[in-house]
Amino acid sequence: MNMRIIAGQFGGRSIEGSGTNRTHPMGERIRGSLFNIIGTEIQGATVLDAFAGSGALGFEALSRGAESATFIERDRVAQTIIAKNIMSLGVSGRARLVKAPVASWQATSDQLFDIIFADPPYHDAQLSTVMKLTKLLKPNGLMVLSYSGRGEVPTELGVVVVDNRSYGDAVLIFFRKKDA
Hints:
Layout: E1 2-4, E2 14-16, H1 28-38, E3 46-50, H2 56-63, E4 68-73, H3 76-89, E5 95-99, H4 102-108, E6 113-118, H5 127-132, E7 137-147, E8 159-167, E9 170-177
Parallel strand pairs: 3-4, 3-6, 4-5, 6-7
Antiparallel strand pairs: 1-2, 7-9, 8-9
């Protein structure tokens, strides 16, 4: 299944989808809305695409001017597809693929990011792991969580919910890290 990059340097180009039912690619309409909401924040940003799947969020960010994107994915099929997409778009100097579960990677990472996309599998939202990712946000950084909307909105000290949007069975929650 191919996916289309919506706008920017690679706008209109197709990337390979994850090809596995273990991931749920974010629909183009929701992805378009997400990037319209964050707008100019993406320019020059360091981006983390956690639970990357096909990498569509990170590649969209790179297309729209992000400085770099780190893709975290544990599924081997999805890892292969992300690697192919990195090569086909020619972004190997700006993209890094980490082949690991998000929980074990984030426990050892000290890199900080301007924007974090957290789009865990709906059947295993791993919200405690997702909220630990907020420690990797730079001051005033933004994390966007996509999840099924079932259950409580997760919270973490030092991070505030600044927006919340529903799209059918998907909910986007925008967290902002308070200035240190």
